[in-house]
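Email to the structure team, subject: HORMA domain-containing protein model.

Hi all, the expression group asked for a predicted structure before they design truncation constructs. Nothing fancy, just the tokens so they can compare against earlier work. One-line instruction: predict HORMA domain-containing protein, return tokens.
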Amino acid sequence: MQCQAQLQRSTITLKGSAQIVTQYFEYAVQSILYQRGVYPSEDFKQKKEYGIMLWVSNDDSLNKYLSTVLSQTKEWLESGKLRQLVLVITDVTTSEVLERWTFDIDTNREVVAGGKPPEKAESEIKGEIAGILRQICASVSFLPLLDTRCSIDILVYTDNVEDVPAEWEDSDARNIKNAEVVNLRAFSTKVHNVKTMVAYKSDDML
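Reply from the structure team: attached below.
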């Protein structure tokens, strides 16, 4: 008699996928801020998620900012209107953009239009996300040291939307001229495909 282990596949709804992607954004951004030293290490605590240990902020003002941004982006994920989220790290003194972390979102339009939700094992999705977060943790091996005081901004790109919060402002792309670009792994819920990359100012450009 043979026994075979099988992945337990589950239906991935539009709202369920939006929640998965939003949670990934939260942990990815917090991991970047910790690994890049944008906030003091003592402002973070460890938490196990996706089968790995991650660093999450215990800074109330930062967590409030992220919660505000991500709650809105979650709504746009659910409506299929979110195209890209960008974390910008800037030199406080010179206002120069040092790093630009981009999360590209490709949405399954059939699901948004009310089509049959796809199926995918939750463990498979979590494994893909864990792989990206490990890459973010390892990014310190190739990214230049940030030895200046930095600030962050989050840019959100959408299809035409009318429900933009009043306190949000228009921004330019905050691109880095002649940047070095590294593509990280992607993950898919079969409703949303998310690609992650980082553009940075190399030591030769400093």
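Residues 160 and 195 are 21 Å apart (CA to CA). The beta strands are 9-11, 44-49, 52-57, 82-91, 97-107, 119-121, 150-158, 180-188, 192-200. Ping us if the truncation boundaries need rechecking.
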